[in-house]
């Protein structure tokens, strides 16, 4: 009995484990990697409470806010870090957030500041790419062009749009050829033409046309979009990665451009990136796109949110009955 009592006394002498800031930070990063953002923020708040002078914790917190679309909140946190330390990574992270917000001049300024302070830093390549693509013309969609036959263009646009959304390439092609002749300034017709051309089996011709357009304008957003998809479909990994890398650093202002990029990410298997981009879209502006519901649903399913995927798919089928003829995202 005496021996047993001693054992019980020893077993009761448990030294309490008090987690420190690094433990909380590690748990926060793990939650972030699992896309449990609310949980990650709670852990990181604990880490910051334990060690408020560690800039890394606040920077990681800002990345979570960026991921959830709270760009202003993320930048406020990063600005606070810079007021008390010279944590160079903040400059690139702020630049990235400004790019999301469409504040291109501010984005360039902070990206350049990062490179000036840390030319060989961890984010140097990303900063350089960001500066390059921020020069993309925001008027790429030709929204400000004036056409004498504007009504005719509008009718052609709507008809082509319907055929493209429903993969009716043979019906879209002659209309796109007509648009190219009648409205040579309307560059979207050129890119839609190569897209349709590619999926009618003329892959090399489509690729060459896009490369020619990209050579004329290295900042042609839709050339990068098409070429990323084309090379992915052709299983040319190196060429595909070059163009998809450019797209990962582009955050356009226009909803149609945002949608095209999100769809491209989903179609090329970059579902986490796609899901993040879809979440930033204004639904009212893109709900007439079948591709919005289809590929948003696919990426939701692939990133572990089957209930959202099903809801999107069902809503899409109601708005676009032809979608119901396709396999669901679980396929």
What does this protein look like?
Helix content is 71%, strand content 0%. It is an all-alpha fold and 331 residues long. It folds into two domains: 21-130, Tetratricopeptide repeat domain (Serine Threonine Protein Phosphatase 5, Tetratricopeptide repeat, Alpha Horseshoe); 150-325, Alpha Horseshoe (Serine Threonine Protein Phosphatase 5, Tetratricopeptide repeat). α4 (55-67) packs parallel to α6 and α6 runs antiparallel to α7 (104-117). The longest helix is centred in the middle third of the chain and has 16 residues, at 150-165.
Q: What structural keywords apply?
A:
Serine Threonine Protein Phosphatase 5, Tetratricopeptide repeat; 19 helices; TPR repeat; 331 residues; mainly alpha; globular; 2 domains; 71% helix; TPR_rpt
Please render the helix and strand layout as text.
Blueprint (H helix, E strand, L loop, with lengths): L1 H11 L8 H13 L3 H14 L4 H13 L3 H14 L4 H13 L2 H14 L6 H10 L16 H16 L3 H14 L4 H12 L4 H14 L4 H13 L3 H11 L7 H13 L3 H9 L3 H4 L3 H13 L3 H14 L12
Helix pairs in contact: 2-3, 3-4, 4-5, 4-6, 5-6, 6-7, 6-8, 7-8, 9-10, 10-11, 11-12, 11-13, 12-13, 13-14, 13-15, 15-16, 15-18, 16-18, 18-19
Pfam families: TPR_8 (PF13181)
Protein name: Tetratricopeptide repeat protein
InterPro entries: CellSynth/LPSAsmb/PSIAsmb, TPR-like_helical_dom_sf, TPR_rpt
């Amino acid at each position: 009995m005496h021996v047993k009592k001693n054992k019980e006394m020893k077993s009761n002498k448990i030294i309490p484990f008090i987690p420190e800031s690094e433990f909380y930070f590690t748990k926060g990063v793990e939650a972030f990697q699992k896309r449990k953002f609310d949980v990650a923020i709670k852990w990181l708040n604990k880490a910051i409470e334990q060690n408020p002078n560690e800039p890394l914790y606040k920077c990681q917190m800002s990345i979570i806010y960026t991921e959830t679309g709270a760009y202003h909140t993320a930048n406020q946190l990063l600005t606070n870090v810079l007021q008390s330390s010279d944590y160079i990574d903040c400059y690139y992270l702020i630049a990235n957030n400004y790019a999301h917000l469409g504040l291109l001049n501010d984005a360039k300024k902070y990206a350049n500041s990062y490179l000036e302070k840390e030319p060989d830093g961890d984010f140097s390549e990303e900063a350089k790419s960001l500066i390059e693509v921020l020069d993309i013309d925001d008027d790429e969609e030709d929204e400000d062009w004036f056409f004498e036959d504007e009504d005719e263009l509008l009718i052609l646009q709507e008809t082509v749009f319907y055929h493209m959304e429903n993969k009716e390439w043979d019906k879209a092609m002659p209309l796109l050829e007509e648009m190219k002749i009648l409205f040579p300034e309307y560059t979207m017709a050129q890119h839609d033409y190569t897209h349709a051309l590619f999926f009618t089996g003329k892959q090399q011709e489509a690729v060459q046309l896009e490369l020619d357009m990209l050579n004329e304008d290295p900042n042609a957003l839709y050339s990068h979009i098409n070429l990323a998809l084309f090379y992915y479909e052709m299983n040319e990994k190196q060429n595909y990665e070059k163009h998809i890398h450019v797209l990962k650093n582009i955050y356009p202002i226009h909803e149609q451009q945002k949608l095209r990029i999100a769809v491209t990410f989903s179609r090329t298997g970059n579902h986490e990136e796609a899901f993040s981009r879809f979440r930033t879209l204004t639904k009212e502006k893109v709900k007439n796109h079948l591709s919005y519901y289809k590929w948003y649903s696919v990426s939701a399913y692939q990133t572990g949110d089957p209930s959202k995927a099903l809801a999107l798919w069902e809503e899409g089928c109601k708005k676009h009955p032809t979608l119901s003829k396709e396999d669901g995202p679980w396929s």
